[in-house]
TrEMBL record:
It comes from Cellulomonas alba. The chain crosses the membrane at residues 42-66, 87-104, 124-145, 157-176, 188-206, 239-258, 306-326, 338-359, 371-394, 400-419. Keywords: Cell membrane, Membrane, Transmembrane, Transmembrane helix, Transport. It is found in: Cell membrane. Pfam families: MatE. InterPro entries: DinF-like, MATE_fam, MdtK-like. It is a multi-pass membrane protein. The keyword Transport applies. Its main location: membrane. The lineage of its organism: Bacteria, Bacillati, Actinomycetota, Actinomycetes, Micrococcales. Belongs to the multi antimicrobial extrusion (MATE) (TC 2.A.66.1) family. This is MATE family efflux transporter. The keyword Cell inner membrane does not apply.
Length: 436
C-alpha cells in the first residue's frame, strides 16, 4: 500500500507545486523591484489564486469521477468524463479571463490597496488574465490524468512549465525591464503552453479508447453538478484567505509584503502535502468504484499517517530555515523580520495541515462534496470573529502579522481538522459504485 500511495504522491508533488512555485519565482523576481511592487504582487496573486482556486473543482471532481469509472471497468467512460471536464474548463476560463482583465482595478481597490501598491497590483492582474483559460484547462486535464492514475505526465509538464516561467520572468522583468507587467505576461504564456500539452495527451488517450472528443451537454452538466459543492467548499476556503489578506493590508505595507512571503511559502507547503491527498483521491475513488470498502478504510488510515508525518517534516524545514530563505524575497529588514516571525507560527501547524488536507482528499475521492461544502461555510463563520479581532486590536507590522497567522492556523485550520475527522470516523461517505 505504501508503494501504491507513493507511486502516485511523489510524481503528483511536482505537478502540485508548480502553481506556488510560479508565485515564489514571481515574488523573488518582483521583490528586486522594491517593497511596493512586492506588496502589489501580494494582492494581485491573491486575487488570481482565488479565481483559479475557486475552480479547483475542475480537477477534484474530475479525478473522483474518472477514478470511479475506471475502478468499475469503464475506461472509455472515464476518458469521456475527462474530455467533458476540459471543455467546461476552457469555456469557464475564457469568461473569467475577460472579467478579470476588465475588473482588475476594482478588485484591487476592494482589497484596500491605494497608490503605487494598487497600480502594481492592477498591472499584474491585467497582464496575467489572458492565461486564465490555460490555468483552468491545466486543472481539468490534470484531474483526468490523476483519475487514470497517470501522475507522471502532469509532473513532466509542471517541471517544464516551472523552468520556462522562471526564464521568462527573469528575461522580461530584469532583462527587458518590463516590470511587474513582464512577470504577469510570462506566467500567462507559460500556463497556456502547459494547457496545450496536457490537453493533447488526454485527447490522444480518448481517441485510442473510442471516446468522443466533442463536448456533450449531459457530460458538461454532470461535471458542473458534481463540482458545485466543491465550488462552495473552495469558495469558503478562498474567502478565509482573502479575509486574511484584507487583515494584513490593514496592518500596513510591511505586514502585507511579509504576508506575501508567508503566503507563498504556506501555499508551497500545502500543495506539497496535498500530493498525499491527490493519491488518496485517486485510490479511494478507484476502490469505491470497485466496491472494496475494507481497502478504503486501510487507505484512510495509511494516508493520514503519511500526511501528519510529512507535515511535521515540512514544519521543521519551513520554520527552522526561515531565517535563511526569507532574504531571497526582500532586502527590507522590517519585512524580513515580520515574515520570519509569522513563518514560525505557520510551521508549528503544518502537521495539522497534513491531517486536514489528506482528509479533504479522501472525502473528495469519495464524492462527499456536499458535506465538505457545509463544513467550509461553518469553519469560515468560526474564523471570521478571530480575524476581525486581529484587524481591530493587533499592532501593525511583524507582531500583527504573527497574530494574524496564529488566528488562521489556531482557529480556521483546527476547525477543519475536527469536522473532517468526525466525518471520516463514520460510514456515510463510503458509497460504492461507478458514481457517488
Amino acid at each position: 500500500m505504501d508503494r501504491q500511495i507513493l507511486s502516485l504522491a511523489v510524481p503528483a508533488l511536482g505537478a502540485l507545486v508548480a502553481e506556488p512555485l510560479f508565485v515564489l519565482v514571481d515574488s523573488a523576481v518582483v521583490g528586486r523591484l522594491g517593497t511596493d511592487p512586492l506588496a502589489g504582487l501580494s494582492l494581485a496573486s491573491t486575487v488570481l489564486l482565488t479565481i483559479v482556486g475557486l475552480c479547483v473543482f475542475l480537477a477534484y471532481a474530475t479525478t473522483a469521477a474518472v477514478a470511479r469509472r475506471l475502478g468499475a471497468g469503464d475506461a472509455a467512460g472515464a476518458l469521456r468524463t475527462g474530455v467533458d471536464g476540459m471543455w467546461l474548463a476552457l469555456g469557464l476560463g475564457a469568461v473569467l479571463g475577460v472579467l478579470t482583465w476588465a475588473s482588475a482595478e476594482r478588485l484591487v481597490t476592494a482589497l484596500g490597496a491605494t497608490g503605487e501598491v494598487a497600480q502594481h497590483a492592477t498591472t499584474y492582474l491585467q497582464w496575467s488574465a489572458p492565461g486564465l483559460p490555460g490555468m483552468l484547462l491545466v486543472l481539468a486535464a490534470t484531474g483526468a490524468l490523476r483519475g487514470l492514475q497517470d501522475v507522471r505526465t502532469p509532473l513532466g509538464v509542471a517541471v517544464a512549465g516551472a523552468v520556462v516561467n522562471a526564464i521568462l520572468n527573469v528575461v522580461l522583468v530584469l532583462g527587458l525591464h518590463r516590470g511587474i507587467a513582464g512577470s504577469g505576461a510570462g506566467t500567462a504564456a507559460t500556463q497556456l503552453g502547459m494547457a496545450a500539452v496536457l490537453a493533447a495527451v488526454v485527447a490522444r488517450g480518448a481517441r485510442s479508447a473510442g471516446a468522443d472528443l466533442r463536448p456533450g451537454r449531459a457530460g458538461l452538466w454532470a461535471n458542473a453538478r458534481a463540482g458545485a459543492p466543491l465550488f462552495v467548499r473552495t469558495l469558503s476556503l478562498r474567502a478565509a484567505l482573502l479575509l486574511t489578506t484584507w487583515v494584513a493590508t490593514g496592518l500596513g505595507a510591511t505586514a502585507l509584503a511579509g504576508h506575501q512571503v508567508v503566503n507563498a511559502v504556506w501555499n508551497l507547503s500545502a500543495y506539497a502535502l496535498d500530493a498525499l491527498a491527490i493519491a488518496a483521491q485517486a485510490l479511494v475513488g478507484h476502490a469505491l468504484g470497485a466496491s472494496d470498502v475494507p481497502l478504503v478504510r486501510s487507505l484512510l488510515r495509511r494516508t493520514l499517517e503519511w500526511g501528519v508525518g510529512a507535515g511535521a517534516v515540512a514544519g521543521v524545514l519551513v520554520g527552522g530555515l526561515a531565517w535563511a530563505y526569507v532574504p531571497l524575497f526582500t532586502d527590507d529588514p522590517a519585512v524580513r523580520q515580520a515574515a520570519v516571525a509569522a513563518l514560525v507560527v505557520a510551521a508549528i501547524a503544518l502537521p495539522l495541515g497534513g491531517f486536514a488536507w489528506v482528509l479533504d482528499g479522501v472525502l473528495i475521492g469519495a464524492g462527499d462534496g456536499r458535506f465538505l461544502a457545509r463544513v467550509g461555510v461553518v469553519t469560515l463563520a468560526v474564523y471570521v470573529p478571530a480575524a476581525l479581532a486581529v484587524r481591530a486590536w493587533a499592532p501593525a507590522g511583524g507582531a500583527g502579522l504573527a497574530w494574524l497567522w496564529a488566528a488562521f492556523v489556531g482557529v480556521y485550520l483546527v476547525a477543519r481538522c475536527v469536522a473532517n475527522g468526525v466525518r471520516a470516523r463514520g460510514n456515510a461517505w463510503t458509497v460504492v459504485g461507478a458514481s457517488s
